[in-house]
TrEMBL record:
Protein name: D-serine dehydratase-like domain-containing protein
Coiled coil: none
Assigned keywords, A-Z: Lyase
Domain D-serine dehydratase-like per the UniProt entry, residue ranges: 292-386
C-alpha cells in the first residue's frame, strides 16, 4: 500500500484528467467493465444451474473481486497463486456485501492450483485461520502424498481433484483405469470423516483450446477433451463408489460457451472477459465482450517520423503478440499503424499507409494488449475512468511472479 499512497501524494484529488497520470499506466473504463459484467450474467441467465466463479488472475485487484461478487453475479472466486489470495483474506471484512449464500453461507474462494512446499502449506493454514472461518478456501489436488499434507494441516479446507483434460500439465491422467482408480482413492481419502476436508468436485480446465481460432474446431475439441473427460470421471466415481461430484469446474473466456453447451460443467471460471484482449477478440465468433482496459502511454518523440511511445516490454506483455492501438478508450483499432517493440521502455508506432494518424510529442496513446493477464501483472495500479473521461479512483494490483 505504501507505493499507492506515494503515487496518490503526487496526484490531484479525484476526479482529474488522465493526462495527469504518469505513463505508462493502466486505465479501465468503468462503463465498459460494467457492460462486460452484465454480458456474462446475461449469458449465464440461460444456464441457471451453472455457477460463475471468475478468475482473479486477470485483474489481481480486490476492488474488482468485490464488484464481481456484488453486482457481477459471481458465486465464488478463483485465484491462481497465494499472492493473489492473501490480500483478499487480509481485507476479508470488506466483502460483507458479497454473495455469501453459495456455500454454507461462506465466501467460496478457490485456488486453482495444488499447494506444494512447506512455505505455501504454512501460508494456507494461516489464511484459513485469518479468514475467521467466514470463507471456505478450496485447493486442487492430484497427488495422494500432497493430499496427506493437506489433511495434516488440520484446518477446514475444500478440495477439488484436478484431472488432465488434454493440456498435459497438471492433473491426474485418466486415460486408463489406473488413473480413474487414483481419482477414486483421492475422493475417498478426502471424504474420510476423520479429517477436516470437504470434497468439492472435479477441476477440468483446458486452457490451450481457448485460442483455437475457428469456432467449429474449438467447439469440437472442447467437447472431445474437457467435457468428455470430465463426464467420464464423474460417471466413474458415481458408478464405482457412489461418490457424487458436487462441482465440475473449469472453462475460461475463449471456450466457456462450449463447456456450457457440453452440459457437464456446472461452474465456469472465466477471467479475461472482464478486460478482454486482442487475442480472444481475434477468435472467430468470440464471446460478446469488449475492451475495457487500456495501457495509457505518451508519445516521447517523432523525430524519426515514427512515433516513439513509452509502452515497451515492461508495460505490455509481448510473448503472445504485439498490442493494438485504439482511438481513445474504444474498441476501434488504428488500422494504419503498427507497433514494434523499441525495447524495455519504448514502443515504435509506424504508419503502414499514407494518411495514417500523425502523433505528436506529448500525445496520449491507448494500447490494448494481445494477452491481458501477464500485461496487468506488469503494473501496480489501475486508474478507473468515468463517463466524463476523468480518473475517479485508483485501484491496487497485487502483481506477483507466481508465488
Ligand atoms: N481457470 C484456470 C485454471 C486458468 O488457468 C485460467 C487462465 O489461465 C482461467 C480459468 C481463466 O481463463 P481466461 O482468462 O482465459 O478467461
Ligand atoms: Mn491468460
Amino acid at each position: 500500500m505504501r507505493n499507492l499512497a506515494l503515487l496518490l501524494s503526487t496526484l490531484p484529488p479525484f476526479p482529474f484528467h488522465p493526462s495527469l497520470l504518469p505513463t505508462p499506466f493502466l486505465t479501465v473504463s468503468r462503463s465498459a467493465l460494467t457492460r462486460n459484467l452484465e454480458g456474462m450474467q446475461s449469458i449465464l441467465s440461460k444456464h441457471p444451474k451453472v455457477r460463475l466463479r471468475p478468475h482473479v488472475k486477470t485483474h489481481k485487484c480486490v476492488e474488482i473481486s468485490k464488484l464481481t461478487l456484488t453486482v457481477g453475479g459471481a458465486q465464488g472466486l478463483c485465484f491462481q497463486v497465494m499472492d493473489e489470495l492473501e490480500p483478499h483474506i487480509d481485507r476479508i471484512t470488506e466483502f460483507d456485501d458479497a454473495n455469501k449464500s453459495p456455500h454454507n453461507n461462506k465466501l467460496d474462494f478457490m485456488l486453482t492450483s495444488s499447494v506444494i512446499g512447506k512455505n505455501k502449506l504454512n501460508r494456507l493454514k494461516t489464511l484459513v485461520n485469518n479468514s475467521s472461518y467466514t470463507t471456505l478456501i478450496s485447493v486442487l489436488v492430484d497427488d495422494i502424498n500432497n493430499l496427506k499434507q493437506l489433511i495434516d494441516l488440520s484446518v477446514p479446507l475444500g478440495v477439488f481433484i484436478e484431472i488432465d483434460v488434454g493440456q498435459n500439465r497438471c492433473g491426474v491422467n485418466v486415460d486408463d483405469i489406473q488413473g480413474l482408480k487414483t481419482v477414486e482413492l483421492l475422493a475417498k481419502t478426502i471424504q474420510d470423516p476423520t479429517n477436516k476436508l470437504e470434497f468439492r468436485g472435479i477441476h477440468a480446465y483446458q486452457g490451450a483450446l481457448q485460442h483455437v481460432r475457428l469456432e467449429s474446431e474449438r467447439s469440437s475439441l472442447v467437447q472431445a477433451q474437457s467435457v468428455a473427460t470430465a463426464e467420464k470421471v464423474k460417471n466413474y466415481l458415481l458408478q464405482s463408489s457412489n461418490i457424487t461430484s458436487p462441482l465440475i469446474t473449469g472453462a475460461g473466456t475463449g471456450s466457456f460457451l462450449h463447456e456450457l453447451s457440453g452440459g457437464v460443467h456446472n461452474e465456469v471460471q472465466p477471467g479475461s472477459y472482464i478486460f478482454m484482449d486482442t487475442d480472444y477478440l481475434a477468435n472467430s465468433n468470440p464471446p460478446p465482450f469488449e475492451h475495457s482496459l487500456w495501457i495509457l502511454g505518451t508519445v516521447l518523440s517523432n523525430a524519426t517520423g515514427r512515433a516513439c511511445c513509452d509502452i515497451g516490454s515492461k508495460a505490455v506483455d509481448l510473448v503472445s503478440g504485439v498490442p493494438k492501438f485504439t482511438q481513445g478508450m474504444t474498441s476501434k483499432y488504428f488500422e494504419n499503424m503498427e507497433y514494434e517493440s523499441g525495447g524495455d521502455e519504448h514502443g515504435v508506432l509506424s504508419p503502414t499507409k499514407e494518411g495514417a494518424e500523425i502523433l505528436n510529442v506529448g500525445d496520449l496513446v491507448h494500447a490494448v494488449p494481445c494477452h491481458i493477464d501477464p500485461t496487468v501483472n506488469l503494473h501496480s495500479e489501475i486508474a478507473v475512468i468515468n463517463d466524463a473521461g476523468d480518473v475517479e479512483d485508483i485501484w491496487e494490483v497485487h502483481r506477483s511472479c507466481g508465488r
